[in-house]
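Hey, resending since the last one bounced:
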Amino acid sequence: MWVFKDKEVAKMYNKTQMAKVVGLNPDTLRRVINGKQECSKLVAYCITKFLNSEAEIEDYFVRGES
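The structure tokens again:
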């Protein structure tokens, strides 16, 4: 499982639109970005590519304990 590193990175994006593109419920996306919920590698990949198509997962996420 993966944990989002820095919620400041995603502040400039509309979470509802971002959730629609990524394919998550907006509340779930907010919990992931705030670090309250871990996510799968696939979700981490989708969020990463939404934020920056050239970035790698490790640029925005750290591996969680689960």
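The helical segments are 15-22, 26-33, 41-51, 57-60.

Sorry for the duplicate.
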